[in-house]
Amino acid sequence: MSLTPNEMAAILPFAIPAVAACIVPLAALDKDTATQKWIRAAIFCIALLALCSSFLFTARLWAEGAQPSYGYLAFDRLGQFAAIFVLVSAAYAVLQLWDHLHQEGWAKGEILSLLLFSAVGMMLFASTTNLILLFLALELFSIPLYALTAAVRLRQKALEGGAKYFLTGAVASSCFLMGIVLLYGLTGTLDIDLIASEIAKGPLDPLAMVGFALLLFGLIFKISAVPFHQWTPDAYEAAPHPIAGFMSVATKGVAIVALIRVFTAPFAQNAGLGGRMQASMAIVAVLTLALGNLCALSQTNYKRMMAYSSISHAGYLLLGFVTGTSEAFQAILFYLCAYLLMNLGAFGALSAFGLVGDKTEIRNFRGLGWKRPGVGIALTICFLSLAGIPPTAGFFAKYLLFKELIVQGHVELAIFGVLASLVSVGYYLKPIVAMYMEPMPNEIQEQRACNAPMAGATILVSGLLIILLGLVPNSVLKGIARPSIKEGLAYSAETVPHP
After folding, report:
1. What pLDDT is recorded for position 107?
2. Pairwise CA distance, residues 36 & 34, whole Å
3. DSSP 8-state assignment for residue 2
4. Is CB count within 10 Å lower at the N or C end of the chain?
5. How far apart are alpha carbons 68 and 356 in whole angstroms?
6. What is the pTM of this model?
7. What is the pLDDT of residue 267?
8. Alpha-carbon Rg of the chain, whole angstroms?
């Protein structure tokens, strides 16, 4: 079977990292300690080369305005945004893993292979409206993450966190699959656009509501929203630091994009379904914001605090679905861009400071801001942005969401979001206070600063881009977010009914 240039262009961004994921594990076959260092460098170069190649090809498609497709795979503007988002997140993780694995003392080829397979699955997940392909992509990126969470087998917490993530993930996948079964049984099709058309022809069937609710449950789990958030603190604490950062950003991002893609057509064509779903989103968003921020306040472990922070940011993102307008979806994509920089910078600080293993308590940051001042300043910028302090990207991201809520008449939700942001300042200041205002332990003073150039570089880049994005937000908002929504969706989000 021969492929047309259009079909080849749709497949190639996925094929490149997939082929690299198959090549990288071959490095594990080499048992010669004399060549181990060179083999290790080679597999990292292969992974980075694959991610960069896929990124450059996707960026070229974006610049040319091309939106290729192959069967049920639609690599449109929205799919290209998601692909770039995932590829950048994966590249961050690979760079940080270079330092982290040297510090932890376990470097295996399968780690990078699983990461690449997960990235491919995420890209597929955000580039289709066929429910079966959506489910297969969900499993393709979820199963490697289960294994990566428990990658450090010598740590009891790793095995525990991996098992919890796997079991709860299996339940969420089952809910998602049952929703697919119900919708297919009602409509006889697996394409979400055709499902929306069939449901819109008559009165709203209660089974259709159940089917969409089950799909929503599966996606909410990946976003780490209440009530499917319980796995998040244990999984993040168990996973290697760069993997936890990748999970917190990429998984949430593609689930949000899939949520936009899957539910836009049903919302637009069925006022009853749209109204009920958006009301549900408002409840879930409020509960997620409240629980995430309040639980984060009481944490003393850095990674668990970041896990509850991730839960709270899922609440902010879900607020955009309450209005369901084109502007709200654009604000969500802008928020994701800012969140990528903020969270990957915050998780990368652990590797940059050399805090591996169980050294993840907030007290372990005491005095480190003076030990590595560049990393300390960049990490401070990340936390200020997460809290929504101007002039950072996080401030403008929240401003866009709250502004759209007020314009559409949801003033009370905007006020609640602002109050939640004020609460978040309390726990985001904890690591900053530890870095600069608490005395450094004597044993740390006598040690040399940790040599982690790759992890340190990623945090410095994040800090710089956060400031630039906050000062010139239109470069991303109008140049990336707006085309992704306007050109990437078959149905205009502005026609979505409000509850």
Report:
1. 59
2. 6
3. -
4. N
5. 43
6. 0.93
7. 62
8. 22
Contacts of 488 (CB under 8 A, 6+ apart): 67, 76, 77, 78, 79, 80, 81
Structure tokens at 428: 């985001």
Number of H helices, E strands in the chain: 22, 2
pLDDT for residue 306 is more than 90: yes
CB burial of residue 83 (10 Å; 0-12, 13-18, 19+): buried
**Assigned token pair, 311:** 């839960």
DSSP per-residue letters across 269-312: H-HHHHHHHHHHHHHHHHHHHHHHHHHHHT--BHHHHHHHHHHH
Spatial distance between the Cα atoms of 487 and 478, rounded to a whole number of angstroms:
12
Residue that has been written with the tokens 């539910």 in this structure: 263
Tokens 């509960």 sit at which residue?
287
Distance of CA 238 to the CA centre of its chain: 18
∠ CA(68), CA(14), CA(49), 5° rounding?
Answer: 120
Model confidence pLDDT, tens digit, residues 130-187: 999 999 999 999 999 999 998 877 777 888 888 889 999 999 999 999 999 999 998 8
The one-letter amino acid code at 52 reads C
**Tell me: the pLDDT tens digits for 42-97?**
888 999 999 999 999 999 999 998 889 888 898 999 999 999 999 999 999 999 99
**Cβ-proximal residues to 139 (8 Å cutoff; 6+ apart), any chain:** 121, 173
Instruction: Respond yes or no on whether the N-terminal peptide bond of residue 391 is cis (omega within 30° of 0).
Output: yes
Q: Report the distance separating Cα 31 and Cα 21, nearest Å.
A: 20
Write down the pLDDT at residue 311. Answer: 95
